[in-house]
Amino acid sequence: MADAGLNFSLMVMSPAFKSCYNRHEYTIVKFMTVNIRSFISQDTANVISLWRACDLTRPWNDPNKDIQRKLKVADNLFLVAESGAQIVGSVMGGYDGHRGWINYLAVDPSHRKLGLGRSLMLEVEKRLLEQGCPKINLQVRATNTAVIDFYESIGFSDDEVRSFGKRLIPDN
Ligand SMILES: CC(C)(COP(=O)(O)OP(=O)(O)OC[C@H]1O[C@@H](n2cnc3c(N)ncnc32)[C@H](O)[C@@H]1OP(=O)(O)O)[C@@H](O)C(=O)NCCC(=O)NCCS
């Protein structure tokens, strides 16, 4: 399905692209075009690989079932970032009519700190706003302290609530 997503270019300077010429060291700059668009079912295997690489899968959540359930909602809030043929990022947004929700935000470890996480969040925020969503909530696992600075740097703050859950359908 064609998608009015977001296209942008990233400039990557990596030691992997360093070369030597006349005793001087040059950094070769790599330009990378990234397209943020809605998820399509053909992305399934690549997205699950990305989630595994980002340590987002858990034994009690079957990622295939999570994706199948999300596709039934068809809310245009499940996004991927692709660079060439590679899926390098994802975010699964949702809107329940009161709050927007963020799940499965992931950027491939080799593409982090380039602004991709922020760009995925900006695109899903834009789409939530278009649907009239007044506020976004998200949950961070207690063990995932590394991500707190990221969320604060893109404008989120700690709501200081306890999060409760109740499983209705066991995946395994
Ligand atoms: C969290 C995550 C999506 C961030 O993606 P990213 O593409 O590296 O983030 P960005 O490059 O857009 O960073 C945006 C800002 O956050 C900061 N930031 C990103 N990761 C950070 C970290 N681990 N610690 C501190 N700051 C961080 C960046 O420096 C940048 O700040 P700046 O604009 O002031 O320079 C990525 O680290 C990831 O996939 N983590 C594993 C999965 C995960 O934990 N997902 C969230 C589940 S709740």
What this model shows, in words?
With 172 residues, this protein is an alpha+beta fold. It has four helices and six strands. A six-stranded mixed β-sheet has the order 1-2-3-4-5-6. A hairpin with a 4-residue loop joins β4 (86-95) and β5 (100-107). The longest helix has 15 residues, at 116-130. It is globular and about 45 Å long. Residues 13-26 have low confidence and may be disordered. Bound molecules: coenzyme A. Coenzyme A binds next to β5, α3 and α4. Residues 54, 56, 105-107, 112-118, 140, 144, 146-147, 149-150, 153 line the site of coenzyme A.
List descriptors.
alpha+beta; Aminopeptidase; 6-stranded mixed sheet; 4 helices
Brief write-up:
The chain has 172 residues and is of the alpha+beta class.
